[in-house]
Amino acid sequence: MPTVEERLASLEARMDAMSELRKLVAESRTEMNARFTGVDVRFTAVDARFAELRSEMNAGFTELRTEMHARFAAVDARFAAVDAHFADMDGRFTELESRFTGLESRFTGLDGRVASIDAKIDRHFVWLTGMMVTGFIAVIGALVGLVSR
To answer: pLDDT class for 60, splitting at 50, 70, 90?
Structure first.
């Protein structure tokens, strides 16, 4: 069994090792804190860059949104002009339709007049044919009368 002195020497050796370990841990802690401080500084710089980028992007998006609204307004104006042209064309087609209706009524009246002229011509043809047949019979009767005398 070790003596008290040996045990005391062992404990002192352990204590020296512990104090060195404490120093190493303290140095590591200081070094880690310095590194974390450096990382915090970097993150702060990155956050600043992101904030700057965000403000630039917001400005760009605002400009884009304004430009898009202006272009959509121009497109709406063009569509309004096209709608006005279509309304004008609808008016013209309505006018043409009324003209065609007027022409149709004229042709309907003309059809009645042509039918009446056709009936009149038929009637005159019958009369003329009747007169010619009557005249032909009279001539033949006169010829027969001359020959039979």
So the answer is: very high
pTM above 0.70, yes or no: no
| Per-residue 3-state assignment (H helix, E strand, C coil) for 59-77 | HHHHHHHHHHHHHHHHHHH
Question: Is the Cβ–Cβ distance between 122 and 115 less than 8 Å?
Answer: no
Do residues 25 and 17 make contact, with C-beta atoms less than 8 angstroms apart?
Answer: no
91-102 per-position pLDDT tens digit: 999 999 999 998
Q: How far apart are CA 67 and CA 72, in angstroms?
A: 9
Which structure tokens are listed for 130? 């009747």
C-alpha neighbours within 13 Å on the C-beta side of residue 27? 6
CA distance linking residue 64 with residue 57, whole number of Å: 10
Distance of CA 33 to the CA centre of its chain: 60
Average pLDDT over residues 120-149: 93
The DSSP secondary-structure symbol of 88 reads H
Structure tokens at 108: 């309907």
